[in-house]
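Form 7-S
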Amino acid sequence: MKTIPLCKTSDVDEGTAIKVETEGLSLAVFNLNGAFYVLDDLCSHGPGSLSEGYITGENIECDFHNGAFNIKTGEVAEPPCLVPQKTYKVVMDGDTVGVEA
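Output:
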């Protein structure tokens, strides 16, 4: 398993997300209370970018159709989304956030 470095912990303020594009992937990196989670950035329901959505608790609401996903599990939290969002295993290396690929 290889690790793909994405960003520094300081790049993602608590309670926010950023979009990272690397190695053919477009990912949303979330910081929830100092813990980091990574999902595919492109919503499984439409052309929305989850990193530009609205974080409420553990959910991210897509800014396109207002469906929502659980940030920790990728599971659908609110319709109209039906397909869970792909999640990635986060690997921390000091202050660098990465994912297994």
